[in-house]
Amino acid sequence: MLKLVVLISGAGSNLRALLDASADAEFPARVVAIGADRDADGLALGEEYGVPTFSVPFTAYPDRDSWGDALIDEVRRWEPDVVVLSGLMRLVPPAVVDAFSPNLINTHPAYLPEFPGAHGVRDAIAAGVTQTGASLIVVDNSVDGGPIIAQERIPVLPGDTESSLHDRIKPVERRLLIQAVLDIANSHLDLKELARS
Ligand code: GAR
Q1: Ligand 1 atom 2, closest CA
Q2: 31-87 per-position pLDDT tens digit
Q3: Does the annotation mark 108 as catalytic?
Q4: Ligand 1 closest atom vs CA 117
Q5: Superkingdom, according to UniProt (predicted)?
Q6: Measured from the CA of 14, which atom of ligand 1 is nearest?
Q7: Of 9, 14, 176, 190, whose CB neighbour count within 10 A is largest?
């Protein structure tokens, strides 16, 4: 059984999809803990699904590196096979990458390397493109520039707002994430090999 720690900053709708998938006895992965960098709404999913939660508030630390060190300690307690950044709206410092990558993966609401960063959906709308996408990557020390695990194109429709477009991207992110978790658990996807190539 693949053990996942999922880190969030927001509502955790993609996390909910993983928790729902894990509720199936046949699914080969379990979310063993949910962590956040703030008082994220999605932490409430821990109680709903009976999964432990923890918070390492970014603002409680003097700098990114000391926050990262505290995050590493919390995450390691759960001995995860894979750490999923599922809407963690924070760049993780190099020590976090060293501690967990390539078993550190991130969903992103754009077709990377297009529109990296915190506003992938907003930036795609502002650029006036007719298609964007969803990506799942291995986290490295770049900003959303790590090896691509999976990605899919999604059209930008006339009249789309940031929120209407994001609402169509998220289900694709969920599908890519759940498929990748399945593939890792079934040894059809080797993150080490992907990160080497
Ligand atoms: C997701 O679209 C995720 O890809 C994005 O935040 C959203 C979280 O939604 N992450 C980033 O933009 C990271 N750069 P959720 O909290 O409802 O799952």
Answers
A1: 109
A2: 999 999 999 999 999 999 999 999 999 999 999 999 999 999 999 999 999 999 999
A3: yes
A4: 14
A5: Bacteria
A6: 18
A7: 14
pTM above 0.85, yes or no: yes
Cβ atoms of residues 169 and 115 within 8 Å: no
Element (H, E) at 47: helix 44-49
Q: pLDDT of 144-153, one tens digit each? A: 999 999 999 9
How many CB atoms within 10 Å of residue 110?
A: 24
User: Of 31, 26, 28, nearest to 1 (Cα)?
Assistant: 28
Q: Encode burial over 134-164: b for 16+ CB neighbours within 10 A, e otherwise.
A: bbbbbbbeeebebbbbbbeebebeeebebee
For ligand 1, atom 14: residue with the closest CA: 118
Q: Give me the CATH number covering residue 77.
A: 3.40.50.170
Q: What is the dihedral of CA 99, 105, 108, 110, to 10 degrees?
A: 110
Range of the domain at 32: 1-100
Amino acid symbol at 172: V
Residue 194 DSSP symbol: H
Asked whether residue 44 is domain-assigned, the answer is yes
E strand map for the chain: 2-8, 29-36, 53-55, 82-85, 104-108, 131-138, 148-155
Domains: count for the chain: 1
